[in-house]
Amino acid sequence: MFGWLVLAVLLTALTYTLAPQQLPVSVYKLSLVATAAVVGYWIDRAMYPYARPDALLDIAGGADHMTLCVLMTGATLRRALIVSATMLAVGLGA
């Protein structure tokens, strides 16, 4: 992740050098996308309060390993889709 951080800082510096008036716009858009990620996470938690990926470990009880893997994979993919759809909707201005 350090490489991506360095790249982001370099691109921000390049943006500041080429078009300093665009820097507030970039910060605004980044804050919108970051806020959308948090909102998407909380939408998932509100819609599926008993199907959180980490909660499935507690309620698994006597379930076998394969069933637990399928349930956790489904819950994780569901959360990723909800968060990404929220970020996409905000990013597109919907």
Plain-language structure description:
This protein has 94 residues and is mainly alpha-helical. It has one domain. Helices cover 80% and strands 0% of the residues. Helix 2 runs antiparallel to helix 4. The model has no long low-confidence stretch (mean pLDDT 88).
Overall geometry = elongated
Number of strands: 0
- Estimate the strand proportion: under 5%
> Overall pLDDT, averaged?
88
Quickly give the structural class: mainly alpha
Radius of gyration: 19 Å
What structural keywords apply?
Holin_2-3, transmembrane helix, membrane, mainly alpha, 4 helices, 94 residues
Give a short synopsis of this structure.
This protein has 94 residues and is mainly α. 80% of the residues lie in helices and 0% in strands.
What's the SSE blueprint?
Blueprint (H helix, E strand, L loop, with lengths): L1 H17 L4 H25 L7 H5 L5 H28 L2
Helix pairs in contact: 2-4
Protein name: Holin
Pfam family, one: Holin_2-3
Keywords: Membrane, Transmembrane, Transmembrane helix
